[in-house]
Amino acid sequence: MAAKFRINKTVLLVMLVIIAGCAALATRDLNQKFGETTPTNRASAISSAVNAAKDDVYHQTVKPILEQRCVVCHACYDSPCQLNLSSIAGIERGAHKDLVYDATRFNAAKPNRLFIDALEIQQWRERGFFPVLNERKQNIEANTQASLLARSLMLKQQHPLPDTTILSNQFDFSLNRAQQCPTIEEFDGFASNQPLAGMPYGLPALAPDEHSKLLTWLAQGAKMTTEPPLADSELQAIQKLETWLNDDSLKMQLSARYIYEHLFTSHLYFEQLVTAQQQPQFYNLVRSTTPPGQAIDIVASRRPYDDPKVSRVYYRLQPVRATIVNKTHQPYPINKDLLAKWQQWFVAADYKVAELPSYQPEIAANPLTAFVQLPVNARYRFMLERAENTIMGYIKGPVCRGQVALNVINDHFWVYFLDPDLVTNDKVEAFYLAQKDNLRLPAEDESSARAINWPAYAKRQGNYLRARSDFLNSVLKDGRHLTADALWDGDGTNNNASLTVFRHFDNATVVKGLIGDAPKTAWVIDYVLLERIHYLLVAGFDVYGNYGHQLMTRLYMDFLRMEGESNFLAYLPPEVRRAEFKDWYQKAGVELTQFIAGDINPFAQPTGITFNTDQPKAELYQIFANKLSQVQPKRYQLENSSLSVNSQALLQQLGKIKGKAASLLPELTMIMLQPTDSNLAPQLFTLIRNSAHYNVNSLFKEESNRDYANDNMTIVNGLLGSYPNVFWHVKETDLAKVVAMAQQLTNEQDYQRLLNNYGVRRTASDFWQFSDQLNAIFNQLNPIEAGLLDYNRLDNR
Q1: 3-state class (DSSP) for residue 332
Q2: Residues 288, 314 contacting (CB under 8 angstroms)
Q3: H/E element holding 150?
Q4: Other CB atoms within 10 Å distance of the CB of residue 113
Q5: DSSP per-residue string spanning 480-534
């Protein structure tokens, strides 16, 4: 309920004069005209900002525009020029010329994480960030002409998108494009060379009313009032949880450390305080040098297990004060049932903690060493309880995007988990402990690692797999571990028992349940594998690390993928396993050949399943599906839509497209479908392309490993994914035509004709209206899980 914004006519007149004389101003010395830049100029001018709600122009008028038009491209580490506009702190921090995603750097870079590595504007300036707001004299002219944000918006108004369907090569939307990050002193030359680079880049300009509101706000000093205080109910819930987490006992200190190291990327919220159709208050779980009741003083370490440099850390809840964006959003509900389980697993369980583990990398980077005193069952149960969130950590956690981490997985696969009861005995725990050296992780080498260590990790992984095979065959002689009984069934109620992972080139999605047609590969994950995935790609991954750290992470993930796949293959008849493995690794590189030369997968033990067909993999999928049938979520099923049965059947046909036609479609197509019944709201769907590969273990051969003939599609009800490539806007009456056109795609011209009729390209005149409607429906249907989509991957086709 934003208050009506009153635009001062005098201010607008001055702004028009300024815009007209912009070219003349471009050559003038900013320092001479507006004084030298310093954050104190701005701080002094806005210190008297009125906090009354009726005068809160930023939250009521400006912030919604910034979110819908700017945050959709400027959030997280992959934001152009590191300009993160999702919070007041990010806007004040400004931009930086260095890339965060740089896999070539020899030494680790200095982390620049909002709310963590610096808190004051001057600290960010010392780290190389430059302002996007005016930090010179504070007057109307300076606040626009010395503001990068204002100049970028005005440049767009002066040079709107060309009147063309597909933008020319002047616009570079490639993933690793050379970024143009001019300071305000460099902006005149930049604008002269790149007149079409105004903001929003490569998208339609803001509407006149939106532009006027932002420019008026900027001209008047870009005042941003602080967030309102938390409600008493929130404060009480925080106090209760922080008190429990920070109990003085060694048992609780170790347990809280474990909980924190697994939830530091999540957005916690109190389920009992959620109001219908409203987004809850989210929190980050952080380490602080101060106890509950005092102001949080964050321990700004690279990794959650690094030495905090203090004798005692406290685990605190820090309110999330940034716009929720889908690509980093991991909602994690806290409720009575969960807290009771935590109490049972970590406090009431019969075990003792003699002393707390050290923070030395060789200890802290390996959870099998650091948390050896915690029962394995407690650790495994904790991760399984919210398995989707556990796996989501390496998709939405410290990377935002990550081809280095993600080109190591197939585009579509299912995940199952071993029953925790299988690891609830002394022999299993003793075996894991005995293997701690073989299970060391690359993060022990911290952020400036050397990739030459790979052979040593390969040898240890091979030793572990052989030892694991011998152990299971000798100790679990009943063969239960190779039957469907070995799978965790969610205890009959938990729908985290199976997951589907979709990879979309450099980003990915994980959802609960078995989604889509039977995939080429599947994983079966046990405790040790799940723990190592988390500590390799989440807790131990440093996005600011050097090339060696990132390369070692990628190479080690090969081991973990093959381990999960081998666990699945072990349920098949022995004679089928090798053939299936060979099919999954066609044209494999020498690195895989060397790794498996030691016979890490003997595939000799008999399966405990009797197969009755000549399609054992398909039969195994069905056996597993039957086992987990009671905990299969229906959220993404097409029948959950409000469309007619006939329309649902037509949509199903989109999910059956394969081969050439599928390869012409993008990774993620988000569809808004207008039902024939005008009383029904628009329906949202996602069409996902699953790119086939001969193998995914070759680090530098993504394109040469593509198996286009076996590309296929999955269609789901609702929005899935964070980075849409294209939007379709379709009437239900046109659905048959759309399906026919998609099925008959044979070349790029066919695809362009499809978009000409039903696409909402980045150049569409109604792009922003469509975007607003789609995001509004997404948030209405999923007020907790939704977040703003990211438009950095929108196609230009």
Answers
A1: strand
A2: yes
A3: helix 148-158
A4: 15
A5: GGGSGGGB--GGGT-TTSEEEEEEETTEEEEEES--SSPPSEEEEE-HHHHHHHH
- Give the pLDDT mean for 61-86: 94
Residues 6+ apart with CB under 8 A from 236: none
Q: CB neighbours of 461 closer than 8 A, spacing ≥ 6?
A: 438, 559, 563, 595, 600
- Which sign, positive or negative, has the C-alpha torsion 342, 347, 353, 359? positive
Phi, psi angle pair for 69, to nearest 5°: -115, -25
Which has the higher per-residue pLDDT, 543 or 207? Answer: 207
Backbone angles phi, psi at 657, to 5 degrees: -65, 135
Residue 508's DSSP bridge partners are 503
What pTM was estimated for this model as a whole? 0.93
Closest CA to 765 of 144, 19, 160, 42: 160
Adjacency order of strands within the sheet including 412-417: 507-512, 498-504, 412-417, 521-525
Q: Widest CA span of the chain, in angstroms?
A: 86
Residue 473 has pLDDT above 80, yes or no: no
What per-residue confidence (pLDDT) applies to 422? 82
Measured CA to CA, the distance from residue 692 to residue 345 in angstroms comes to 41
Residue 334 parent element (H or E): strand 331-334
What is the identity of the amino acid at 429? E
Least Cα distance to 686 among 414, 504, 513, 495 occurs for: 504
Half-sphere CA count of 177, side-chain side, radius 13 A: 16
Give the integer Cα–Cα distance in Å for 94 and 81.
9
Question: Rounded to whole angstroms, how far apart are CA atoms 540 and 554?
Answer: 12
Evaluated on CA atoms 284, 285, 286, 291, the torsion sign reads: positive
**Separation between Cα atoms, residue 289 and residue 296, nearest integer Å:** 7
Q: Where are the beta strands (DSSP E) in 589-722?
A: 668-674, 683-690, 712-717
Rounded to a whole number of angstroms, the distance between the first and last alpha carbons of the chain is 38
Structure tokens at 687: 């069409």
Query: Across-strand partners of 759?
Result: 728
Q: How far apart are CA 415 and CA 408, in angstroms?
A: 15
Please state, as a whole number, how many other Cβ atoms lie within 10 Å of the Cβ of residue 665.
Answer: 21
CA dist., res. 763 & res. 765, Å (int): 6
Cis peptide before 200 (omega within 30 of 0): yes
Q: Would the pLDDT of 3 be above 60?
A: no
- The average confidence (pLDDT) of the chain is 89
Distance CA 673, CA 55 (A): 39
Domains annotated for the chain, with CATH where assigned, are 9-219 (no CATH), 229-356 (no CATH), 400-633 (no CATH), 638-781 (3.30.1050)
Q: Write the DSSP symbol of residue 114.
A: B
- From the number of C-beta atoms within 10 Å of its C-beta (0-12, 13-18, 19+), residue 345 rates as buried
- Split at pLDDT 50, 70, 90, the class of 557 is confident
Nearest to 685 by CA among 644, 626, 640: 640
Q: Which two tokens stand for residue 692?
A: 């086939």
Cβ count near 252 (within 10 Å)? 16
Sign of CA dihedral 524, 530, 536, 541: positive
Inter-residue contact 442 to 547 (CB < 8 Å): no
Q: Shortest CA distance to 414 belongs to which of 624, 191, 651, 134?
A: 624
The neighbour count for residue 461, using CB atoms within 10 Å, is 23
